[in-house]
């Protein structure tokens, strides 16, 4: 847990901004929902922007990172989970507590109110916490889809993967198709963490931990069937303090490198000394 207490005062000190590339190591399917079906199209299309290009919504990245961190910190247990939705067959459970030092709630925010726990007494809290972490939509780098790749794609930018679900009793096949962004495609990612007090800065270690967890997990649908493996590269972390916004002071580069480990090392080495420049 963090060093935050109920008396911790919040005031913007600055922002940590991490930018880089996310590469699809296998085909990636982030679904657009059934409402976008087209005649002759895939059963499960990917989400696309107004120009018809696939992208990864920031909400998908943020939700996956939150889920992985809840698991790694031991918060994905019934006594720590609350229901966001209880619609039959569509239950949604996330971690939430009223502890002021809860790193998950500090990073991703929490709303006051009454929420039913999965197990135990109802959570009733008046404590609101602003989210520190913002994750932006990741646009596709069109140049990552090479002419050689396009020759083998079913669409200009995507492929269609055919799958079968087999009935265990009758052995009847239930074919389905899954639209995917092909392996080798790259997306541009941007992560911004607000530092509202000195106690916030170490929370960035959790962000980097979540990215490393994601590299050995999956993003989007079909992860257990081979889709959604991604990796991060060409990373650059900068600090923009309050003076950057107030008086045009330059940003400070904390670290850059080809992998997340290089950024983790740079953050550790910095010991968050850049915070002292804002005092």
Descriptive account of the structure:
This protein has 279 residues and is an alpha+beta fold. The chain has one domain. Helices cover 20% and strands 28% of the residues. Strands 7-11-1-12-13 form a five-stranded antiparallel beta sheet. The protein has a two-stranded antiparallel sheet with strand order 2-8. Helix 1 packs across helix 4. The mean pLDDT is 91.
Notable traits:
279 residues; alpha+beta; five-stranded antiparallel sheet; two-stranded antiparallel ribbon; globular
Secondary-structure map with pairings?
Blueprint: E1 14-24, E2 55-56, H1 58-72, E3 81-85, E4 92-95, H2 103-108, E5 113-115, E6 123-125, E7 133-135, E8 138-139, H3 147-150, E9 159-166, E10 173-180, E11 186-195, H4 203-215, E12 230-241, H5 242-247, E13 252-257, H6 260-270
Antiparallel strand pairs: 1-11, 1-12, 2-8, 3-4, 5-6, 7-11, 9-10, 12-13
Helix pairs in contact: 1-4, 4-6
Total domain modules? 1
Structural class comes to: alpha+beta
Mean pLDDT across all residues, rounded? 91
| Overall outline | globular
Task: Kindly provide the radius of gyration, computed on alpha-carbon positions and rounded to a whole number of angstroms.
Answer: 21 Å
Helix fraction bin = 10-25%
Strand order of the largest sheet: 7-11-1-12-13
Low-confidence stretches: none
What is the count of helical runs?
Answer: 6
- Profile the largest sheet: 5 strands, antiparallel
- Beta-strand portion reads 25-35%
Order of helices and strands: EEHEEHEEEEHEEEHEHEH
N→C terminal distance:
25 Å
| Count of extended strands | 13
